[in-house]
Design a protein that fits this description.
The protein is an all-alpha fold. The protein has one domain: Phosphate transport system protein phou homolog 2, domain 2 (Methane Monooxygenase Hydroxylase, Chain G, domain 1). It is about 80% helix and about 0% strand. The protein is built from seven helices and no strands.
């Protein structure tokens, strides 16, 4: 698994650039408190990006395991969600503590609130990736028709691209990313509709058809979460 990218503190989307945004006519003890606070914000952001990376990589790896019928890889991925859960709990605890013990300025307040809103969506997305891995561990894709497998592959590829865009939007504080991801999410919904039509006429066991429907639903929900997160970026940067 690749590490999360380095995040410059300037990318956090607060009121002013690094150093300059934190400068104010304060006493030395207060200045030291503010320095420690903004160091904590940098640490929080690094963990958020790490959580993004875990979810994105989990979606990609679960999709690969599903399509390749790699049951061993899928079983490994099915237990990886514990890492996501632990990081989510840690982030929520740290963020809530900073909100309670500090007096953040408007931009920093928006950042902390955004973290508390985004992190649960990341955790739920990690759960969805694990659900896909569980179906892959059962060798589901090996029992599907080529057309159904092809549609699942397109949904998986589109979903991975959506999450790559969501990660980049958070790191770059891209307020325009939501519109582009919303269009890709519409494509994901169209693929789901096509898959449902194909399942009605495919020669597939009922239990496998039902499991395939669930996998498609997982991808659809993952797309929604990616779009919601980019909408949070707009609030983080612009406050609206």
């Amino acid at each position: 698994m690749t590490g999360a990218p380095e995040v410059d503190a300037r990318q956090r989307g607060c009121d002013r650039p690094v150093n300059e945004r934190y400068r104010a006519p304060v006493t030395e003890p207060r200045r030291e408190l503010r320095r420690r606070f903004h160091k904590q914000l940098d640490d929080i952001d690094a963990k958020v990006v790490r959580l993004f990376a875990l979810v994105r990589e989990g979606i990609a790896a679960s999709t690969d395991a599903l399509l390749a019928g790699d049951t061993d890889a899928a079983r490994e991925l099915a237990g990886q969600d514990q890492l996501v859960d632990a990081l989510e709990a840690d982030l929520e605890q740290i963020t809530e503590r900073e909100l309670l013990t500090q007096t953040p300025m408007a931009g920093d307040m928006r950042y902390l609130v955004s973290v508390l809103r985004v992190v649960p969506e990341l955790e739920r997305s990690g759960d969805l990736a694990e659900h896909i891995a569980q179906r892959a561990a059962n060798g589901l894709a090996l029992r599907l028709t080529p057309t159904v497998r092809g549609l699942l592959e397109q949904m998986g590829t589109t979903c991975v691209e959506l999450w790559r865009g969501a990660v980049d939007a958070w790191i770059d504080r891209d307020v325009d990313a939501a519109a582009a991801l919303d269009a890709a999410d519409d494509q994901l919904d169209d693929l789901q509709d096509q898959l449902m039509i194909e399942l009605e006429k495919a020669d597939i066991a009922l239990v496998d058809a039902l499991q395939t429907t669930l996998v498609a639903r997982f991808y659809e929900r993952l797309g929604d979460h990616a779009v919601h997160i980019t909408e949070r970026v707009r609030y983080l940067v612009a406050g609206s």
